[in-house]
Every structure is written in structure tokens, then in C-alpha cells.
Write a structure and sequence with these properties.
CATH superfamily of chain A: Cytochrome c-like domain
Radius of gyration of chain B: 38 Å
Largest sheet of chain B: 2 strands, antiparallel
Strand order of the largest sheet of chain B: 1-2
Radius of gyration of chain A: 18 Å
Oligomer: heterodimer
Helix content of chain A: 40-55%
CATH class of chain A: Mainly Alpha
CATH architecture of chain A: Orthogonal Bundle
Order of helices and strands of chain A: HHHHHEEH
Number of strands of chain B: 2
Order of helices and strands of chain B: HHHHHHHHHHHHEHHHE
Chain lengths: ~110, ~325
């Protein structure tokens, strides 16, 4: 019985330590480099609206939503129609990578803003 | 009591009816307030740069904005350029909408530029065409398609080519032989940063040889080595003709930047005469230092292992009445 309690406490502790590691796992430099090489910053900035919304705004919209990361990746990889400030529409740029790990890192970085 | 209740209910309805339009109005106004009033893009660094910095701002390419730290970025100077002064109006680039790469601006300066060197240089030459650049057209660099931006960087505060301490890095990236020479034991103080390539050369073109700053080699050397200029009572013609008859300018393994060791250097002209140097290179005819029974030494053997300037110290010229041999 005693062992079970200790094991339970250890599992709990491990879970508590492991859970917040997702935020720390984001490689911000790699995400920025990928965004830069794909000209993302030509339309998006971190904290100001350009042709596209700021990353802070995107983050606020999707943060906490279970499908946030998935939607962000879908936006980057499928090139949907997006509405610009002047009311016109154009295709969103399709990112030049299919590496799921890179895409996930970039999406997480955007949502962490 | 019933009447009172009725009146109270009536008042409540009246109040609600009064506030209703206001509440509705709030609902109508709210979305309008929510949509942020987007300001027209403002210039960030240069006059009229908003059309470019809408995309190329600090998020996209902060290195471009560093032009604000340069003289080109001084907005108080009305002669200062706009982005389009150098890159062209680039209407297609600006108006492009799509997910692919937009067409290039009218004039670009990178390694992958589709513009010719002449087109690129025109951007600079439209302002910088006087002074030192008078001889640019037809100069060695210009005719070899080495343009302004091959050496100069415009969007940076520190242009390596314009800093004496770092200029050689720019020049030596092509002129590798000169880099090697400048690292030899006897060299002009180029690695020490006391002089740079442009101390002697004008990379923008010159009427002199080797793109020198002045019309002749000697005139260039005399700007520092004035004591060699003369005029001398006794001139050493090769010295007054061209310093590079004996010296190599960028560096040598022999002291005083000489082309060859003495006496071989002097022997390349002074073959016969006072101290015969015949056979000095091959070792023939040297003979012993003192010929047995002779009253004088063999002239040739005097030369071996010795430097002519041990005695002929004034080799560049002498003003001494007894100095025709440059010994005093």
C-alpha cells in the first residue's frame, strides 16, 4: 500500500514536470528562420498588422483551442484564400516544407506569441 | 395597491422602451468600434519609403532599415535618395498579389541581380560622378563589370570598403596575389592598418598606371617617401625613372621591399665596370679573394655575400659634390 502511494506521488510529480515542457520545446530561432526563408514576415509581423494579421492576433484567436495548431498548419500548407485589408482576396502562400516537425514547431511558435 | 403595481410596471416598461434604442445602438456601434481604423502606412526611414516598408519592415528585413544610420538616410539632406531612386519605381513588384514570389524590383544589386553592371552603377553614378570617380568610365574595374556594389555596401553603417582598417578585406577578395605579398616579411604597413589600398590606388579609375592615385609610380611613392624625390645633384636614373625598377610595392621576402637580393639586384644592370659582376650568378670567374702575388683583390669576389648599399648608401641620388658613385 505504501509503495503504491509513493509510486502514485512519483507519477504525479513526473506528469507535473513533463506537462509544461511543450512551451519550452519550441525552437523559436528555427521557427523564425523558417518563417523568414518563406517570406512570412513580408505579410505578418509579431506584434503589428501588415497585409496579414499579427502573430499575436492569430495566437489570441487560436490559443486554447484544441484545433489551433492544426488550423495554423492547414493555413500554411494548403494555401486557402485570405482576405486582405483592401478587401481583395489572394491565395495564402504555401510553405516550402513538408517536414511535420518543422511545421509543428512554427505553428507552436506562432500560437505562443 | 393594484394601481401602484400597475404604475410601477408601466414605468418599468417605459424605462425599458427608452433605453432599448440606446442598447441597440450600442450593439450596432460595437462592431464598428471593433474594426480597427487602419492608418495609411507611414515612412519608416527614407522619404516615401512606405510603399516598400509596408512589407520590408523590421520584421522582414531589419538589415535594410540600417540605411537610416548612413549618410543616405539623413532626411534633412534634401539630396538624400528614396528607395526608388536606386531600385526604380518597380510598379509590378509593388502591385503584385499572389502566393508566389513577386517579380523583382526594377533594379537589384545582389549577386543574383538580373541587371547589368552598367545599369546597377547608373543608380550610384546619377549622384556620385564627380571628383575621384571622374575616370570611372573606361577604368579597369568598370570595363571588367566590377560595379559599385561589388565593393560597397549601401544598407549598412559600416561599409568595409570605406574603412582603412577593413578595406583590404574587400580588395584582397579578388586581388589574392597582393594579399600574399602583403604578408611577407618586408611589406608596407598594410596588415598593421597604417595604410590601405586606396592610399596608393584609386579603385574608381585613374589616368596613371595600375589605377594609381597619381600620374606616375614615383609621384605616388613620393607622397610618403619625399626624401627620395630629389632633385639630386647626382641622380640614379633607374630610381628617378621608376621605383618599381628595384622595389616591389606590396611585399617582399627581401628587406626594403627589394625585388632581388643585393648584389644580384644591382648586377642586373651593373655587369661590367668598377666591380665586375660577370659570372656572379653562375659562380664562375670569382676566383680567390686575394690572388697570390697580386697587389689588388679580384673585383668579382668582392661582390660575394655583400650588399652594394653597404658603401653606396645614397642609391636614390646624392647631393654631395663627391657623390657621383652614391657613396656619400
Amino acid at each position: 500500500m505504501k509503495h503504491r502511494i509513493i509510486a502514485g506521488v512519483l507519477v504525479g510529480l513526473f506528469a507535473a514536470i513533463a506537462a509544461p515542457s511543450t512551451a519550452a520545446d519550441i525552437d523559436a530561432e528555427a521557427a523564425k528562420a523558417l518563417a523568414k526563408s518563406n517570406d512570412c514576415f513580408k505579410c505578418h509581423a509579431i506584434d503589428k498588422d501588415k497585409k496579414g494579421p499579427s502573430y499575436k492576433k492569430i495566437s489570441a484567436k487560436f490559443k486554447g483551442r484544441a484545433d489551433g495548431e492544426e488550423k495554423a498548419i492547414k493555413n500554411m500548407t494548403t494555401g486557402p484564400k485570405v482576405k486582405l485589408d483592401d478587401g481583395t482576396e489572394e491565395d495564402h502562400k504555401v510553405i516550402d516544407t513538408k517536414d511535420a516537425k518543422q511545421l509543428k514547431n512554427l505553428a507552436q511558435w506562432i500560437l505562443s506569441q | 395597491m393594484g394601481l401602484l403595481r400597475k404604475m410601477l410596471l408601466l414605468c418599468m416598461f417605459a424605462g425599458m422602451a427608452g433605453t432599448m434604442p440606446a442598447a441597440l445602438a450600442v450593439d450596432v456601434v460595437k462592431p464598428a468600434e471593433k474594426t480597427e481604423k487602419k492608418e495609411a502606412p507611414r515612412d519608416i526611414v527614407l522619404k516615401g519609403d512606405a510603399k516598400c516598408t509596408t512589407c520590408h519592415d523590421e520584421a522582414d528585413s531589419p538589415e535594410l532599415l540600417a540605411i537610416g544610420k548612413t549618410r543616405h538616410g539623413v532626411r534633412a539632406d534634401k539630396r538624400g535618395p528614396e528607395c526608388t531612386s536606386c531600385h526604380g519605381e518597380s510598379a509590378k513588384h509593388i502591385a503584385y498579389k499572389g502566393s508566389d514570389k513577386p517579380p523583382k524590383p526594377d533594379r537589384t544589386f545582389g549577386k543574383k541581380s538580373a541587371n547589368t553592371a552598367e545599369e546597377r552603377d547608373q543608380a550610384c553614378m546619377s549622384c556620385h560622378k564627380g571628383g575621384n570617380r571622374m575616370q570611372w568610365v573606361g577604368s579597369q574595374h568598370e570595363s571588367q563589370d566590377v560595379g559599385c556594389t561589388s565593393c560597397h555596401k549601401v544598407h549598412t553603417r559600416h561599409d568595409k570598403a570605406r574603412d582603412r582598417a577593413t578595406q583590404t578585406e574587400t580588395c584582397f577578395s579578388c586581388h589574392k596575389e597582393q594579399r600574399t605579398e602583403s604578408l611577407r616579411t618586408s611589406h608596407h604597413p598594410i596588415p598593421e592598418g597604417k595604410i590601405s589600398c586606396s592610399s596608393c590606388h584609386n579603385p574608381h579609375g585613374s589616368s596613371g598606371p595600375k589605377m594609381l592615385n597619381t600620374a606616375t609610380v614615383n609621384e605616388t611613392c613620393y607622397t610618403c617617401h619625399a626624401e627620395k624625390r630629389g632633385p639630386f645633384l647626382w641622380e640614379h636614373p633607374p630610381a628617378s625613372d621608376n621605383c618599381s625598377n628595384c622595389h616591389t610595392p606590396h611585399g617582399s621576402s627581401i628587406a626594403s621591399l627589394l625585388k632581388y637580393r643585393q648584389p644580384f639586384l644591382c648586377a642586373s644592370c651593373h655587369i661590367a665596370g668598377g666591380h665586375s659582376t660577370t659570372g656572379i650568378r653562375s659562380g664562375q670567374d670569382l676566383g680567390p679573394l686575394v690572388t697570390p702575388g697580386a697587389t689588388s683583390t679580384t673585383a668579382a669576389s668582392q661582390m660575394v655575400g655583400k650588399a652594394c648599399t653597404n658603401c653606396h648608401t645614397q642609391v636614390h641620388g646624392s647631393n654631395h659634390p663627391s657623390g657621383p658613385r652614391f657613396a656619400r
